[in-house]
Amino acid sequence: PLIALLPGDGIGPEVVAEARRVLEALDLDLTFESAPVGGAAYEALGHPLPPSTLDLAQRADAVLFGAVGDARYDSLERAFRPEQAILGLRKALGLFANLRPAKLFAGLEDASALKPEVAGAIDLVIIRELNGDVYFGEKGQRKTADGRREGYDIMSYDEDQVRRIAHVGFQTARGRTGKLCSVDKANVLETSQLWRDVVIEVSAEYSDVQLTHMYVDNAAMQLVRNPGQFDTIVTGNLFGDILSDQASMCAGSIGMLPSASLNGTGKGMYEPIHGSAPDIAGQGKANPCATILSAAMLLRHSLNAAAAADRVEAAVTAALVAGSRTPDLGGALSTSAMGDAVVAKL
Amino acid sequence: PLIALLPGDGIGPEVVAEARRVLEALDLDLTFESAPVGGAAYEALGHPLPPSTLDLAQRADAVLFGAVGDARYDSLERAFRPEQAILGLRKALGLFANLRPAKLFAGLEDASALKPEVAGAIDLVIIRELNGDVYFGEKGQRKTADGRREGYDIMSYDEDQVRRIAHVGFQTARGRTGKLCSVDKANVLETSQLWRDVVIEVSAEYSDVQLTHMYVDNAAMQLVRNPGQFDTIVTGNLFGDILSDQASMCAGSIGMLPSASLNGTGKGMYEPIHGSAPDIAGQGKANPCATILSAAMLLRHSLNAAAAADRVEAAVTAALVAGSRTPDLGGALSTSAMGDAVVAKL
Ligand SMILES: CC(C)[C@H](C(=O)O)[C@@H](O)C(=O)O
Ligand SMILES: CC(C)[C@H](C(=O)O)[C@@H](O)C(=O)O
User: Fold this and answer.
1) Can you tell me which residues bind NAD(+) (chains A, B) (predicted)?
2) Looking at the whole model, is its pTM more than 0.85?
3) For chain A, which residues make up each domain, given as ranges?
4) DSSP class of residue B82?
5) Active-site residue, from A61, A91, A215, A245
């Protein structure tokens, strides 16, 4: 299988390098090809997602993505900003389902701002729709009748979009504790009302899953008050953006958390949930675990290699239990030394 | 001055009664008139915001609102659901600025799910725009070209709407520590891009205020990681809905937090941030402090009675320090006994 490596900006290259070493150590028949993305690609080729990079992503069986972004590019026209590479890849590859597990790793209780007994109970996954909502609707700036500047963005979902992400939600819940919470704002939004109606329709096919609904403002409260109440959460693109970052932070170290963005046929893009952290780039201070765990998700979801995925996840846990820590976790290991520690436990 | 009391559903009547007692104990020249709202109004008069209630709210100098909502009304057509009363009042009275202070009260450190050192640092106010955004844009259900059901909602802000809430943000920050954080999603939304542009324009008039910008997903993270970094946050209607509830929960007991919704001329609606809590309604278990503190905001913002507002706030603090606690705070006082405790400290 061909793995596309898109390291990107900031600490992206460092953490992707360690994840590649872990994948190589597994003795699977993997080929790797790299391409620039984000600010690095804008510098090299004039576009955050150059055709050659998109082509590689399309040819590959799976994409391992580092991180993109740097304040330097914030003033560029929107189409050239690094984040457009992420949005462009999601759309071009049809990656409609974002899976974001959040759990507290044993031994890292101190890393969370939540009380240990609250944070320790976190073991949830957020399923975020990634191809629709206000992200991809018509948008622009225009003038009102009396000449005022106005910005607008159309939020929408159609029933097919909701149905396919709902199925991912129900199937994920079925493989876990059987509890699915659908988050929306149906008391205000028609998009949410359709969302809720369709999720309820789909639930007829999953009588073994217990479905609940929660408004997004309440969900943001409950993720602080008692995150242990959640197992699987399914929600739209915008609410998922906010809640999945919030949930990650509740679980403590964002240096530990992976993500997968999937289409319906096993193709996926895998990336750590943290950003490009330009302030520590190139210094060997970044925690590679989130990217290594993203590689494990890649094995599981795109390469059908669950046993190898389990091995990688167990190796990360074992390295942590043995006391291996990068600076974000209060330790002193460099990025590559942490990679070594994980490889040694494989 | 005439105060409209809109007790609403669930625990609304109980908590509003205590706030009224506190206001009466101040010996100001206040007149009170009550009217039903929410589910109670739907039962009595067939509409959650009957014309007679709206008329009272319009005649009054300020509105003290309890809470609305009950699962019984969730299946009603949207226009008849209790929440529509809140949205209708905001729109009809032009209440465009929602002020939500969040701070941890001394002695209540245990109530927060955050570690005491994190929660203890919370002392912020969220200024949420309340008359625009995806809440009030065109919305509906329609069919796509090939016949699929679709829900849509138009998100938008024009420059005047952003400008007037930005001024509230800057002025609030100026009266506090001089730090204003504007929260948006300008990397994806054109509405947010206009928001950010206009906030920057307005900042020229407030050189004494330090303005920063943060994406909403990052703000949701930072409110968990280190809420003490924030002083004043200004944001749109939808993001404000989510973040203000999240921030309240970080500060611990939602039974303690007030809110104000203001128009540009001192008229305002004041309400506790908690809901109607039907499960404990009528049992004297509700904490009236959030409503009492809302009455203090009413004194300050609508009646220009800052000294009286200070007195009420000091009385609530003194009652807490003396150990007065309702069940949500681990105590055993009834709603009215807690009201007594506050009145006694006036
Ligand atoms: C960079 C940005 C466009 C992106 C998003 O909002 O989806 C990011 O926040 C994420 O969650 O992957
Ligand atoms: C009840 C609902 C319409 C309302 C809102 O979303 O604004 C509530 O959540 C609030 O924050 O006051």
Assistant:
1) 275-287
2) yes
3) 1-98+258-346, 123-250
4) T
5) A245
